[in-house]
Amino acid sequence: MSAPHRRPSGPRRRPRRAIEIWLIALLVALVATVQIRSEAEVERSLVGTDTTTLAFLIDDLHRANDSLAAEATDLTQRRDALQAGGSSAADQELTAEANRLRAIEGLVPVHGRGIVIVVDASSLQALDLQDAINNLAAAGAEAIAVNDHRVVIGVAIMQTPNGVTIDGALVPPPWTISVIGDTNRLAEAADLMTQQMHSDRRVRQATYRVEADVAITAVITQRPFVYANGS
Amino acid sequence: MARNRVLGILVVAAVALATGFLVAGQVRAQLLTPSNQVARYQALVRSVQDLVKANESSRAKIASLRSDIDALEGAAAQQSTTTRALQNEVADLRAHAGLTTIHGPGVQVDLRNGTPAPDVNGQIGYLINYQDIQDVVNILFAGGAEGISVGGRRITPLTSFSGSAGQIVIDQGPPLTAPVKVVAVGDRNRMFAALEDPSAIPDLRDREVRFQITVTVTGVPDVKLPAYDSSLQIPHVSTP
Fold first, then answer.
1. What percent of chain B is predicted at pLDDT more than 70?
2. Taking the CA of residue A166 as centre, how many other CA atoms within 13 Å lie in the half-sphere pointing to its CB?
3. Does the pLDDT at position A46 exceed 50?
4. A58-72: pLDDT as tens digits
5. Closest-CA residue of chain A to B96
6. What is the tens place of the pLDDT at every residue in B165-208?
7. For B236, phi and psi rounded to 5 degrees?
8. What is the interface size between A and B, counted as CB pairs within 8 Å?
9. Are residues B56 and B120 in the same domain?
10. CA distance A31 to chain B (A)
11. What's the CA gap between A216 and A220, in Å, rounded?
C-alpha cells in the first residue's frame, strides 16, 4: 500500500501565497487611498468659501425653500379648486390671478403695511437708486414707488445729464421711496441702508419710518410685446 | 488542514483591513485635529447640498402645478366664452410677469470670471458678482428687452439679486457662479447699443481691463426663455 499522495508544498505554493498577500496589500492601500482622497476632495470643493458665507447661504436657502413651499401649497389649493368646480371656479381663480398679476406688474394702485425711506442727497446716481431698489426687493418688497413713480424690474432707471430718470421722467432728490411688504424684513434692510448712507458724503439726510398703510397710487402702462412670442 | 489555511488567510485579511482603516482613520484624525475645520465644512456643505436638492424639487413641483392649472383653465375655457376671455387676459399678464415661456430674436450675454489679481479695495474683483448681473439686466431692460433669463432663471417684475463672493442668488433659486449666461428677447440693435455704451456698465468694463473678466454679447435670431418656476406671492399688498 502506498503512502497517501500529498500535494506538494514548497515552490509551487509560494506564488499563490504571494498573490494572496499582494491582493490583501492592494485592498488595504485602496481603502486608505479612498479615505484620504475623499477628505482632500471636500477640502478642494470648499476653496474660497468660508464658513460665514456658507452659513448665510444656508439661511437664504431656508427662507427661499419656505417661500417655495408656501407657493406650492397655494398652487395646490388653486388646482384642487379648479378640479372641484367647473367654469365658475375657473372664472373666480382667473379673476383673482389677474388682480394679483396686475398688482405685481405695477398696473394698478396698491396699499398695505410697509416703510417709507427719505433720502436727500446731491449727485446720487442711477446706480445708487438701482442698488437701493434691489436691496429692498431682496428684503421682500412687494410694491415700490419712488417720488410717485412705480418701479418694478423692467422699468428703466437711467442716468441723464439732468439727473436720474425713472421710465423717462426726471426724479430729482429728495427721493421718497415707498415700499409695501413684510415690515420686519424691510425695516432691517432700511436700517442698514440708511446707516450706510450716513457715511456717504453726498447724503444730507437718510431716514425711514414704518407705516401701517403705505398707499402707492402710481401705475405703469404695460407695453405690448413686439418681438416676443408665446411658445 | 485546508480549512485551517483558509481560516488563516481570512484572519490575515481581516487584520490587514482593520490596519488599513486604522491608518486611514489616523490620517483623517490628524487632518481634523488642528481645528476640526474640515468636519465643520463638511456639515455645512452637506446642509447646503440638501437645501439645494429640496429647492430644486420644490421648483419642479411649482412648474408642474402651474402646468396643471393652465390645463384645467384651458379645459374650463372650452365651455364658456367669459372664461375664455379671462384666460386670454391672464395669459397676457402671465407672459409679462415671466410665468410662461417666450421666444423671439434677442441677445445672449456671456459673463466669465477673470484672472485673480490684487485688488486695492479688498474686493474679489475678478469674480462676476450679483451686482454685475443686476447691472446687465437693467441695461437690457432699458434697451428694450421684453423678457430676460439669467442662468436659466426667468426674471420677473419682483426679481431681486443677492449673493457674496462670486455667488449669484436670484429670487429663491440656489446660487449660481460664473460663467453666467444672460439671455434677452427684444430689439437686438437697441440692446446691443445699450451694452456697447461705454458709460453703461462702468464697473464691469473697468474690471474687464484689470482682471480680464470677459463680457461677450452675441445676437441670436431666436432664443427661448423658460417660465419662472419660483414663488411670486404678494401677501402684504391689497388693491383698493
1. 92
2. 22
3. no
4. 988 998 999 999 999
5. A105
6. 788 999 988 889 999 999 999 999 999 999 988 888 888 998 99
7. -95, 0
8. 287
9. no
10. 6
11. 12
In the chain, the amino acid numbered B2 is: A
* Statement to judge: residues B85 and B158 lie in one domain: no
Task: Identify whether residues B61 and B113 lie together within a single domain.
Answer: no
- Residue B141 within a domain: yes
Contact between B188 and B194 under an 8 Å Cβ cutoff? The reply is no
In total, how many domains does chain B have? 2
Q: Cβ contacts (< 8 Å) between B199 and chain A: which residues?
A: 159
Domain A110-216 has CATH 3.30.420.40: no
CB of B195 within 8 A of CB of B201?
Answer: yes
The sheet with strand A203-216 has its strands ordered as A149-151, A143-146, A175-180, A110-121, A203-216
Q: Which residue range is the domain that position B51 belongs to?
A: 37-94
CA angle B89–A137–A215, rounded 5-degree value: 70
With respect to residue B138, please indicate whether it lies within any of the assigned structural domains: yes
Q: What mean pLDDT is predicted for residues A184-188? A: 96
- How far is A203 from A194, CA to CA, in rounded Å? 10
Residues of B in contact with A28 (CB under 8 A): 16-17, 19-20, 23
Whether residue B65 lies inside any domain: the answer is yes
Give the CATH number, domain containing residue B134.
Answer: 3.30.70.1880
Give the closest residue to A186 by CA, choosing from A128, A141, A132, A131. A141
Which amino acid appears at position A110 of this protein? V
